Amino acid sequence: MSKSSVQSLFFPIGRWFALGALLAWPSVAHAWVETTLKSDNVWLEVDSSGMAKVRHEMLVRVRGGPLKEFVVDGVDADASPLPDASLVRAKSGAGAGHPIPLVPELDGTVLRLVINAKKGVSRGTFLFRFTYETNLANLGGISDRGGHAELQWTGPRFDQGLDSAKLVLSLPRAASAPSIPAANGADGRNEGVFLAQLRRSSERDTLEIVRPHVARGETVTWRAKVDPELFGFAPAVAPTPTPHLRSGVSRRAAMGEPSWRRLGALGASALVLAVMLWVKGRSVAVAAEQRGASARPLVRLPLWARALIGAWLAFAGGAVALELQLPALGAGLAVLYLLLASHLEPRLHPRLRGPGEWARQDPACLAQKSSIRSPGAWLDMGRWQGFLFFFAQAAGLLGLARIRFAVSPYEGIICGMGIALLLPIFCTGRATELPTEPGAGGLGLLRKCWQRVEGSEEVEAELLGRVSEAGAVPDELRIRLSPQRVHNGFQGIELAVENQMNGVGRVPLPVIILRVREGSACHQVLSKRLAWARGRTSEQRACLLRPALPDVESTIELLGRILDLVQDETSAGSGPRAVGAARSASRPQSASNSSMSAGSSSSQVNPASA
Asked: Do 218 and 356 lie in a common domain?
């Protein structure tokens, strides 16, 4: 074998051997790690000497790994870490595992939290806890502002930013409660929006401050106005006006005393509500009595009691929510008010109509208006007066809510929710829920249908009215149609209106009554298509049909279909088209579905029974 052949054989083997040796050479492993800071909650406990204890709880999401240390940039220059630092997996119960110690290493203002675990941590969300001490007085964090002292502390810098940051400031209790400065102070500083909530105990004051958003790389400076005597400064000569707080705490509540101006406004609003409740209840009772019904308040108490108790509940709910900062209790009182102020559908008192006769009526009576004027139009959302009055009050409350929101978002929301107190007054006990006046139900629908069928050459139309022996005014109106060429046994088609209750009140619905003689040719033609019930006599059969939609067009279309069915096949008229009817599907219903005695109230009368 030649020398070149040997080299060509062993040279590839040597290259692979060298590559394997390089891969086997021990080296430091470098892994990919990504951390995302989800939240940072800080507890700052300050004593009267200016010494402060800063405790962080940072929620960190780790991807990849292992993570050996976590770096916090921007701690106080004189920070002295305490040996209680640890991390735990952000899970509840046994899933969190045992806390892992952290070894704090301070390098200037950079704090490294070394994870005291052989393999570090990998993939998951962890809660880092660490505490250090600092002297705010030596760092210039406490200053005398002439009348009040200002405490400021600057937090760490976060490269990724935060959706929200929270600082809980704990101070010894002083004569005046701590608060946050205005967004634009006298020195022109504008450091963003802060929300605050105050809690006072016998020993300490706690001010919880929230910054809604922290930008990338931003350092947040937290400021609070405190009592000057707490840090040995001279007390204020005269009380200075408390600035507007952008917080959920009112100014007077932060000072520990009620706001008499706010309570006065709540009291005046409660008196207005009491008057509105009384007027509403009285109007509903009178209107129901005019229509032969009785009002039904949801809570059956005397009217004066409902007005007074409802006003007291509204006042107490507002005072509890605004002064005592108990929104849940305030909402509960508001719910009781809503129940007390609501009305159910009036209860009808059926009246016997007595015997009567059907007679032709002048079509001009279809244009008559109701002679009954129901009171309470300004407190009825279904009438234009009440519609305008409601939206005027709602606009006023929304304007007040916007003004108060600039001072306190909590107060602004409470003011806006006051609109709910108007809903039972304007949206229950409406005129549309009352029974209709005898003979006046559905006049608009009958008038439009009469205009469509009047003057037809193939169908004779006449307006009928039922007049009782005790009165001269019809208590019900119908339109009767008489085609010229029909099957033997056809006795008539009548268009009536029945009033039914739905979610918006009483609505007039059209119903068509078809009458034939039992066993006649017309009955035999239609018996397989429709369901029948006994009519006015033992020989008569009647059927109720309702259009698919309760409007004029659908009613006329259904009339055209019925006229097609009853028309004699030997005739060549155009009766159905004479009333403008087209083919339209409709589901017939038996007259027995809504059968009632002939002595029922006119507002509930069954068309097939007359």
From this structure: no
